[in-house]
Amino acid sequence: MNLNNLKGHIPDNVIAQIPNVIKTFKIDTTLRMAHFLSQCYYESGGFIHVTENLNYSAISLKRNFPKHFLGNLADSYAKKPEKIASRIYGGRLGNGPEATREGFKYLGRGYIQLTGKDNYKEFSDSIKVDCVNNPELVATKYPLASAAWFFTKCLEYADLGNSYGNITSVTECVNGGTKGLNERVKLFDEFYKLLNSEPTSTPENITKPKSFIRLLIDFVNKIFHTKL
Hints:
51% of the residues lie in helices and 0% in strands. The protein contains 12 helices and no strands. Helix 10 (164-175) packs across helix 11.
């Protein structure tokens, strides 16, 4: 697995965290890493976004969360992320009911958007850091680690191969659906090739061709057994 070839394709600070991901979460094969990075890249918009954006309009709320916003209810929630998160995540994923606001407290964070109090608690237990009482740490300090922890649930699909069907299965595990599947496939192909290829040559490791004069001197030395 050639991590050096990732430089210039993903941020340096992300590359620096990958060895720990390999060791701690066993994302330790080229196949696993290509699946993992492609999913992280898509979900985070290129390793940029670390907090879920829930600034939905009323129309978008009805389209994306129809069972939560019947009738005209969406109008009173539109463009209010805290209220939206509290409603759509309240009463599930280990969160208390909507009134507790835990749906907002444990909204999606990290490169694969760790969501829900239960997941925050399990991740906290895994790394021995309290992200339940400090949920913002998932976004600020552990965006890659939290994504890797969640991705361990998808390793059984990642290990099956690199076909379109395999990538679909991994996407469903990560996303719950197949949103952006074609783009995820392209990203997987890119990362898989990068991780499998030889290191890119740099000026330091390129052997310069000998000059004509040097070649002539070497020839004379060989013929006359001298050292010029």
